[in-house]
Specification:
By secondary structure, the protein is α/β, with parallel strands linked by helices. It is 40% helix and 23% strand. The structure holds adenosine-5'-triphosphate and magnesium ion (MG).
Length: 281
């Protein structure tokens, strides 16, 4: 199995999953706007002979790789589902039906039941929105800088909470719920906005839109758990907290998996291994 690799060429990031010399699954990430880095990596690992591929930029990657290696393509949703099943199993989860929200560049939402799955919807609000809005509004474009600074920020003066509207009254819904993301800006005029506060508020917007939609599908499908995956959650405890708090408030169970950015690459790897076993005597 060490001669096989799974590659997920996503909208923003290309993820690699492979088995290292210690016989453990290992991962690499490259930006999808520079496939020569993936090509170099493969050239530096000549023992890899078989590639499982998935992701929307598969064709663009193949145009750069021009490889003679044995390739097996798997559609993205299948690869992601295979990867999710693998990670659930590895982490000891026994979940029969759940919503899977894949927060990639955009967000794709799926319903899984046993070994079957369907796409139920999605939104253009995702990791690309987080980095895009952060760049335009604060000048901070580095993902790790965005997430670590967001964790230090406060949403208080930028978001409008239910309690801000119902001052001195008993609100009809929980007071700390967001009434309007960024809604305080037009009310508290001429306030100076700190970078960290803006970043925290952008994460709030992205996380709450995704959670709201995921909860609606969970209720429609009568699923208790919502499994949130995608590289947008990598080292992003602040976003996980936004998502987790809101999901729990709405009486559903959020599930976060380690290595959740690599589900597509893991699925492509596992699929290639299975195919090789079928085709090779
Ligand atoms: N090192 C990084 N560089 C840039 N973005 C990162 C990085 N790590 C995490 N991210 C975040 O992850 C997001 C991409 O997530 P992911 O890799 O799951 O999507 P994708 O597969 O590229 O896109 P899609 O599935 O929508 O085609 C980025 O938009 C960004 O918010
Ligand atoms: Mg993806």
């Amino acid at each position: 199995m060490q001669n096989v690799i799974g590659i997920d060429a996503g909208g923003t990031l290309t993820k690699l999953a492979y088995i290292n010399e210690q016989n453990e699954m290992d991962f690499e990430i490259f930006p999808s706007n520079d496939f020569s880095k993936v090509k170099n990596w493969l050239e530096n690992h000549p023992h890899i002979e078989e590639i499982g591929l998935t992701g929307g930029r598969t064709k663009q990657l193949l145009n750069v790789l021009k490889t003679m290696k044995s390739i097996q393509y798997l559609v993205e949703f299948e690869a992601t589902f295979k990867g999710v099943k693998y990670l659930l199993n590895k982490n000891g989860y026994d979940i029969e039906n759940a919503i899977i929200s894949n927060i990639g560049t955009g967000t794709s939402i799926h319903y899984m039941e046993g070994y079957s799955h369907i796409r139920v919807g999605g939104t253009g609000i995702g990791g690309g929105t987080l980095t895009g809005l952060s760049t335009i509004m604060t000048g901070v474009s580095d993902f790790n800088e965005i997430t670590s600074n967001a964790a230090l920020g406060s949403r208080e003066n930028i978001d409008l909470f239910v309690k801000d509207i119902f001052q001195g009254m008993e609100p009809p819904i929980e007071g700390h719920l967001t009434a309007s993301n960024f809604g305080n800006v037009s009310i508290l005029k001429d306030t100076k906005y700190e970078t960290n506060d803006l970043l925290a508020t952008i994460q709030g917007l992205v996380g709450e839109v995704i959670t709201t939609l995921s909860i609606q599908f969970a209720e429609e499908k009568k699923a208790n758990e919502i499994i949130y995956i995608g590289s947008t959650l990598t080292n992003n405890d602040h976003l996980k907290e936004v998502i987790s708090n809101y999901t729990i408030l709405k009486k559903h169970k959020p599930v976060f998996l380690d290595d959740c950015g690599f589900t597509g690459a893991i699925g492509a790897l596992l699929n290639k291994v299975e195919q090789s076993h079928i085709t090779q005597p």
